[in-house]
Specification:
The protein is α/β, with parallel strands linked by helices. About 35% of the residues lie in helices and about 15% in strands. Helix 13 links the parallel strand 10 and strand 11. Helix 3 runs parallel beside helix 4, helix 4 packs across helix 5 and helix 7 packs across helix 9. The longest helix has 14 residues. The structure holds adenosine-5'-diphosphate and magnesium ion.
């Protein structure tokens, strides 16, 4: 047995109430064995609250922050109900490929003493091997775009489906997957169990649940981040010194795993390259990388080969990364709820965590919104002495063939349009497709063929810079803005 993990077990020490055991939750025997093998001692709060209903076959809406153990909660009934050789019986939808991969690894671990045919299905990789797997699959974990592809190709048979899980539902909707998710739901049998798991509850999530769930039970758990263990600080500094200060802090703060958040893919790349030139070994992670590269980066980070990860919100959301002691906001998120997600990466499992915001005048408005969040205390730290570093000139990213311009038009518009193109937070892969002609998620009046950019670009998870290359020129914002000469 592995060493026992301590997660969210605060109540064990602080309350007289003995914590319920996994056995008491009515889990099937092979799953109990797997849980013991994993070294989990007690159910987490969300597991304790949701599993009894989940296992009864009720529709459940469960809200709990990232890292609170939601995967096991929905896996419980899947592993209990799925029968061997009866075809596809459970479908888990996740917003990104990494999550699909992560969830399928977890489900496989949980089913190790009663192995079932579990496969993950997502875009950005060849569809052929997936088709072979689908024929045998009993449990599928996948991203909405690719699942719809399979449904359209009749390579996925949902007629025997018993359980549908919407994992990270908030993220899925944020990423503009609403229509895709609805289409998938409409392909599922009416008589099914629907489970919705989410880190936050938005009106959109609630609307979705009202439409497609059957008398759902709602449960939620307290945030998993321990506010007592979390310190938050900000440095207010001229933007041209942001990088120098970050480098200074990265070199001088005592830390284990560090996540540095940027708002755009471009900033992630630029920062990683510059840190490298300063001798800070940092990994970059954003949706523009190939699937292969993203998996490699995560492996390196998990194995503690490199302790600094520079990432965008999309790329990092929901990933289970343990031992993060520092979260840096090199760019301040435009939405305060994104801030909550970012800080949730640290101060977990009884460990101390520190959040450091590096702000300059451009960030004041966004930062004010964050300070307005209830109970948010972020200390203003005096800027320590640091060595000033010149940013190295970064070569242009080879992203997308940029529109061919006649005339010498350069400047703000180009910069803006480039910045927009790389905004991971707003537009995951293919997101652009949807945005044209309407708000995210409203494009494509039902005709999939109209979505341009080839098959893969339809998989709107967080990857695929190739979408930019395939987009039709006349749709580009840039060209719309270009003055006529
Ligand atoms: P979420 O989906 O809520 O973000 P996960 O299901 O990915 O969280 O779980 C986060 C981590 O906690 C995983 O590494 C998982 O193995 C671990 N974990 C889950 N349940 C327990 C438990 N009861 N005790 C200890 N560790 C757990
Ligand atoms: Mg999860």
């Amino acid at each position: 047995m592995k060493h026992s993990k301590t997660i969210n077990n605060e109540q064990d020490e602080n309350s007289d109430k003995p914590s319920i055991t996994f056995r008491e939750l009515g889990l099937p025997h092979p799953l109990l064995k797997a849980i013991e093998h994993e070294g989990f001692e007690h159910p987490t709060e969300i597991q304790e609250k949701s599993i009894p209903f989940v296992i009864q076959g009720r529709d459940v809406i469960a809200q709990a922050s990232t890292g609170s153990g939601k995967t096991l909660a929905f896996s419980s009934v899947i592993l209990k109900e799925t029968q061997k050789d009866f075809g596809l019986q459970a479908l888990i939808l996740t917003p990104t490929r990494e999550l699909a991969e992560q969830v399928s690894q977890s489900v496989k671990k949980f089913s190790q003493f009663n192995p079932l045919k579990i496969f993950s299905v997502y875009g950005g990789v060849s569809i052929r091997p997936q088709i072979e797997n689908l024929e045998r699959a009993e449990i599928i974990i996948g991203t909405p775009g690719r699942i719809l592809d399979h449904i359209a190709r009749h390579t996925m048979d949902l007629s025997q489906l018993k359980i549908l899980v919407l994992d990270e539902a908030d993220r899925m909707l944020d990423m503009g997957f609403r229509q895709d998710v609805e289409k998938i739901i409409n392909h599922c049998p009416k008589k099914r169990q629907t489970l919705l798991f989410s880190a936050t509850m938005s009106e959109e999530v609630i609307r979705l649940s009202q439409r497609y769930m059957n008398n759902p039970v709602e449960v939620s758990a307290e945030p998993y981040v321990d506010p007592k263990k979390l310190t938050q600080a900000y440095y207010d500094i001229n933007s041209k010194f942001k990088f120098s200060l970050l480098t200074h802090l990265l070199k001088n703060e005592k830390s284990r795993l560090v996540m540095v958040f940027c708002n755009t893919r471009r900033n992630v790349d630029r920062l990683a390259r510059n840190l490298e030139s300063q001798g800070v070994n940092a990994l970059a992670l954003h949706g523009g990388f190939s699937q292969d590269k993203r998996s490699r980066v995560m492996e390196q980070f998990h194995s503690n080969e490199t302790n600094v990860l520079i990432c965008t919100d999309i790329a990092a959301r929901g990933l289970d990364i343990q031992g993060v002691t520092h979260v840096y906001n090199y760019d301040i998120p435009h939405e305060s709820k994104e801030y909550i997600h970012r800080i949730g990466r640290t101060a977990r499992a009884k460990e101390e965590g520190k959040v450091i915001n590096i702000i300059s005048n451009m960030d004041y408005e966004d930062f004010q919104n964050i300070l307005n969040i209830e109970d948010m205390y972020i200390k203003n730290e005096p800027v320590p002495p640091f060595t000033e570093i010149q940013l190295v000139q970064t070569e242009r990213r080879p992203f997308a063939r940029r529109p061919i311009r006649r005339g010498g038009f350069r400047g703000m518009n180009e910069r803006r349009s480039r910045e927009r193109r790389t905004r991971d937070d707003r537009r995951p892969s293919g997101g652009r497709d949807r945005r044209i002609g309407g708000r995210a998620g409203e494009f494509r009046g039902g005709d999939r063929k109209r979505s341009f950019g080839g098959r893969d670009s339809r998989d709107r998870d967080s990857g695929g810079s190739r979408d930019w290359r395939n987009r039709p020129r006349e749709r580009s914002n840039f060209r719309k803005r270009r003055p006529r000469f």
